Amino acid sequence: MNGxxxxxEALAQTYRTFAQRxxxxxxPSYERLCTAIAEDPAALAMLGELxxxxxxxxxLLGAVRLLGGPVGDYPAFxxxxxxxxxSVSREMLDRSTQTNEAGRCATLLPVLAALPQPLxxxxxxxxxxxxxxxxxxxxxxxxGEPFGPADGPLLECAVDGPVPVPAEVPRVVWRAGIDLNPLxxxxxxDVRWLESLIWPEHADRRERLVAAAAxxxxxxxxxxxxxxxxxxxALAEQAPADATLVVFHTAVLAYLDTAGVERFTGQMAELxxxxxxxxxxxxxxxxxxxxxxxxxxxxxPRGRFVLAVDGRPVAFTMGHGQGIEWC
Length: 327
Ligand SMILES: C[S@@+](CC[C@H](N)C(=O)[O-])C[C@H]1O[C@@H](n2cnc3c(N)ncnc32)[C@H](O)[C@@H]1O
Hints:
Elements: H1 6-23, H2 28-37, H3 41-47, H4 57-66, H5 74-83, H6 85-94, H7 104-113, E1 119-124, E2 138-141, E3 154-160, E4 172-179, H8 188-197, H9 203-217, E5 222-225, H10 228-236, E6 244-250, H11 258-274, E7 279-285, H12 290-293, E8 305-309, E9 312-317, E10 323-326
Parallel strand pairs: 1-4, 1-6, 2-3, 3-10, 4-5, 6-7
Antiparallel strand pairs: 7-8, 8-9, 9-10
Helix pairs in contact: 1-2, 4-6, 4-8, 10-11
The chain binds S-adenosylmethionine.
């Protein structure tokens, strides 16, 4: 169809489906581009040269934006892509899609603030570690009064149900993270990559990212490079004994296979034995953690994460922290 070789049709379908399911109504510019790429044999042939995992729309679009390419209309995008494919493909091979959304701290906050203070935070799949600073951001839940440090970016979160909205931010005395590829908030190139991954129309997310990265850069987090299942127990041993150790993850376990998720939940059980009082906070798509999914009563609203404490669901949350519905 449309002169697209058979081998590239699966890739065309990936871009078409991404445009229809993910981008429609959220990013008109990217929807236009991905729809056009799906019908463009030259673009598909170039993308087809890359390893399978490197052909994703978000990686391509982020790389073009990182290099200053136009993402408004397809002819200009295509011209840039064809002229700069060597640089675009190099960025796609060197980088990976690893957004870091500080806004998710708003949906974690009702849980974190209710725990015995102070807290030692350990985030697995931390990216640049922006979710390790829940004490440094400002919050407004529903139409309540804002609270938190005056210089923090304001995270606004809609509430539904009996959300235990806190009155103040938690006290954090230790923060550390693990990531396969930790990004460095003090490196302008890494921050620019995170910015490039945010869809063009989402200016509020870009502003939040830049503000959160500036806060984190003033006191950079300790991030360990490695697989979360390999590094968790050793890193947890470094947490101060007189704080509540909280191991948390948001939008991470979907990257693991079933055995990896099982191994992680097994390690959380081991950690609870080794260090009683450790708290496990999970914020993931509904089906990702079977132990959590089994306990969700009724249907999970479409597109929501399930927030769970020690494997028990407590709320449904919106992906970027914009809303929370207490169960
Ligand atoms: C979608 S990002 C989410 C980042 C952050 N948790 C947030 O909510 O903004 C997922 C992150 O998990 C990391 N990741 C995926 N699999 C991992 C693994 N097995 N071990 C450590 N990190 C992993 C990726 O590198 C990426 O930075």
